[in-house]
Amino acid sequence: IEGNLLIGDSGDAANPWGITVQAGPLGVTGATTITGDLKVLTDASANILFVDKAQAKVGIGQEPGANDGKLAILGGLRNDLTLQVSDNANDQGIAFQNSGDAYTWNIFRENAGSNTADLIIAGNNTTGPQSTITDLNEYLRFEAGGNLKVAQKVGIQRDATEALDIAGNIRVDKVIVKD
Length: 179
Prior knowledge:
This protein is mainly β.
């Protein structure tokens, strides 16, 4: 340990943490168990990381509040949460599973070549959730060039019975009809 280490009550009712490192880093080797909350600060008011054991929540940039989910991130940038691949040929995404560990939805990027990627939303089919994530059906694809592909019927302001089913007016500049 370099610097000062304070173990015990900090004496500050607003910040009663038991271990304080002052003026230096704290090095820990081997397994470490924390039985209470964990809070990482840059000063008395800047929460970098907060683990709330009682609520089973993690906060980055803020303490997680009662209405926050399991992970709460405070930020103001378009990239506050960034997922990066180690190789552009790899897929990357977020998967949703039910309580039986079966996949129900997947939002992911797929390599489209030339350092670009498509964004895809895939979901379970009519047979229900899938045990393998690659068995989910692709429903929506935002292509790297800006095109949008929809794999199923689209209903606007109503349930779809046709490929495109719209309740209301449609405005178009040009219509091309092909056989």
